Amino acid sequence: MASPTLQRKTLGAELRKLRTAAGGSIEQVAELLGCSTGKVSHIETGRNSPSKTELMVLMDHYSLPSDHRKLLEETRQEARKRGWWSTYRLPSWFRDYVGMETDASRVRTFEIELLPGLLQTEEYMRAINVLGSHITDPSEVERQVALRLERQKRLRAEEPLEVTAVISEASLARCASDPTLAITQFSHLVEAAQQPNILLQVLPFRTGLHSSMTGSFTLLDFPPETWPPTAYQEYAVGGHLVDEQEAVSALSTVFTHLQERALNVEDSIKLIENYAQA
C-alpha cells in the first residue's frame, strides 16, 4: 500500500485530470466548494486532501460512476492516514519528501557540502543537526537522528531501496576537518559503496566547474505505473518537491552529466580512503 503522501498526490492528480477533462477552471471549482483557489490548488497538487463532503461534491459535479467514486473515496481515506514519520514532528516541506521517499524504488542524489542522509553515520547526523539549529531545535536533535536511522533501514530491506549518489569532494573535505567524525564516517561510506544497491561516486575538485554549481538536489524514481519521477531541492531554511516534469527531466540530465564527470566507484573509494588516512 502506498504511503499517505503518494495517495494524496494520486487523488489530487486525478481530480485535476477530471477538472481539465470537463473544461473547468480552478476558480470554478473554488466557487463550487465555497473555498479559495489556493485550497483547490493545494488539493490538486497533493499538498492537502479534500474532506469527504468536498470529494462527494466534486464527484457529483463530474458525474462519476459508482466504481470510480468508490476508488476515489478509498484513496481519500488512505491519504488522510498518518504516515510512520508523523511522530517525528517534521516541518511540512520535509514531511512530504520523507513520504515520497518511502514509496520510491530509487534515489539519485547529488550533494555538494553534505554527505547524503541515507549514507550518514549517527555521529555525523547528530553533528549537522546541532549545527542546523536554525531548522532543528536543540531539543529535537535526537528525534531527527532517529528519523534518519529509520529511513536508512530501507537500504537493508528485503527489496532494498536503490541509491545512486554523486558527492562533491568538498563534502569529504568538510568531514575530514573533524577527525572524530571522519574515521567512522569514511569507513561507513566505503562499506556502503560495496553494497549492490548503492552506487557511490565522487566528483573531484580537479573536475573544475560543473553543471550543478548552484546546489544539491535529489531525484526520486518510483515503480512503473505508480508515479512519475519527482525531484527535491533543499536550501538553508527549507526545501520543496518538484513535480513539474520538464524541470525533473532537466535535473535528471544534469545528474547524468555529473555522473559522467565523477570518478568511477573504484577510484571514488580510493579517494575516500585517502581522506581517511590523511
UniProtKB/TrEMBL annotation:
Residue ranges annotated for the HTH cro/C1-type domain, each copy included: 15-69
InterPro entries in the cross-refs: Cro/C1-type_HTH, DUF5753, Lambda_DNA-bd_dom_sf
UniProt superkingdom: Bacteria
GO MF terms held by the record: DNA binding
Record SUPFAM superfamilies: lambda repressor-like DNA-binding domains
Pfam families given in the database record: DUF5753, HTH_31
PROSITE patterns to which the protein is assigned, alphabetical: HTH_CROC1
Name recorded for this polypeptide: Helix-turn-helix protein
Species name: Halopolyspora algeriensis
